[in-house]
Amino acid sequence: MSKSFHTKCIHGNDISYDHTGAVSVPIFQTATFAHHELGVSTGFDYSRIQNPTREHLEKTLAGLEGGLDSIAFSTGMAAINAVMAMFEDGDHIVASADLYGGSLRLFRMVAMKKGITFDFVDTGNIEEVKKAIKTSTKAVYVETPTNPMMQVTNIKDVALLTKEAGIKLIVDNTFMTPYFQKPLSLGADLVIHSGTKYLGGHNDTLAGIVVVKDPDDLDQLRLIAKTLGGCLSPFDAWLIIRGIKTLPIRMDRQAASAMILAKWLKDQKWVNKIYYIGLEDDPGHETMVKQASGFGSMISIEVTDFQMAKALLNHVKIIQFAESLGGVETLMTYPKTQTHADVPEEEREAKGINDCLIRISVGLEDPDDLIEDLDQASRA
Ligand code: PLP
To answer: Which mutation among 147, 239, 298 tests ligand 1's pocket best, with the greatest number of atoms within 8 A of CB?
Structure first.
């Protein structure tokens, strides 16, 4: 029977691991699985390799993204690290210039040391991507929209290039989730998530997921995951499964609140610039309308001066000044000293990540309360 996205979020995986009729998938809190006799396995051997609770999550998310399967890791960074392990000395990757700071740090501090080279370009500009692809290029790595500047890449356009070049297109879909954007259906080969964000949705769990559509990629990544470790624990897998059950309603409500907030922020004298892809005059808006069914709930603002940034961060009462995003609690992040602290200052400034930039992840509180909170903090 075919299932809609909402139904798949609740009943994502058809495999039953239990005979009791438990409505909630059990947490198989076990490190290992006993064998009845030599050469006979229940299908599960050791939880680093696979665990039923984790498998339930992996099948559910693969179904939501339209992939063949997915592999769940302990964090988003562990997932990205596993994807980087698919490449080797001499391989070249074209990546979005504006990326989550941790991804940049991983590429520069770990992947480059293994002999993988990178060109960081504006992947929203297809000519730049085309120019950067060379014979040693093995993949294009895109975050769209980017963290924190909300730059948008046309996934379909880049996929045409990667198909022609016979290389992989990897998309970090953390900000949109499959509810709003399905990169595999637009031509991507691998989709990455920090499950810590919208999938989990409650600011209480770390997780990372890679969704694949090619059986060879799946085999390679399963071997990498088994070898590197960094797998998602059964309990954390269960928390992400639970989070996904309410993903569509959270995403809809958070996006609606973000739109209300963005429109209000745009009119404030203390806001110099606003980066929200839901606003019609945002440079990424047109592409988002084509490739996604919603705009998400991430807003970045550049305020008038550092004093205003400080006032907001220090005086919000409902909104919390904390790293991370995508949860039910509205968070305000200061990329300069938090998510992008390890990006060299000159590069950070050039990207617009200056001491006036604040990123807001809009949660599930009443948007009027959030507006009142921002208003009082701006006057503090
Ligand atoms: N990708 C994006 C877009 C992120 O924003 C983050 C974290 O903020 C990550 C990946 C890394 O995820 P995690 O913090 O779960 O390791």
So the answer is: 147
CB 272 within 8 Å of CB 356: yes
Q: Taking each helix axis from N to C terminus, what angle separates 234-245 and 52-65, rounded to the nearest 10 degrees?
A: 40
Residue with CA closest to ligand 1 atom 1: 194
Residue 19's SS3 state is: coil
The size of the chain, in residues, is: 380
Task: Give the tokens for residue 166.
Answer: 């016979």
Rounded to whole angstroms, the Cα distance separating 322 from 264 reads: 22
Q: Do 46 and 33 meet the contact criterion of CB atoms below 8 Å apart?
A: yes
Indicate the pTM of the whole model.
0.97
To test the pocket of ligand 1, the residue of 144, 191, 194 to mutate (highest count of ligand atoms within 8 Å of its CB) is: 194
How many other CB atoms are there within 10 angstroms of residue 166's CB atom?
Answer: 8
Is the shortest distance between the CB of 196 and ligand 1 below 6 Å?
Answer: yes
pLDDT digits (tens, 9 = 90+) for 274-301: 999 999 999 999 999 999 999 999 999 9
Instruction: Report the DSSP beta bridge partners of residue 231.
Output: 73
For residues 292 and 186, what is the distance between their CA atoms, to the nearest angstrom? Answer: 10
Q: Which two tokens stand for residue 40?
A: 């006979």
Residue pLDDT, tens place only, 111-167 = 889 999 999 999 999 999 999 999 999 999 999 999 999 999 999 999 999 999 999
In short, whether 174's Cβ falls inside 6 Å of ligand 1 is: yes
Question: HSE of 309 in the Cβ direction (CA atoms, 13 Å)?
Answer: 22
Ligand 1 binding pocket includes 208 (Cβ within 6 Å): yes
Q: Which residues are catalytic?
A: 48, 100, 172, 197
Residues sharing a CB contact under 8 Å with residue 128, sequence separation 6 or more, in sequence order: 121, 122
**What residues are paired with 274 via a beta bridge?**
301
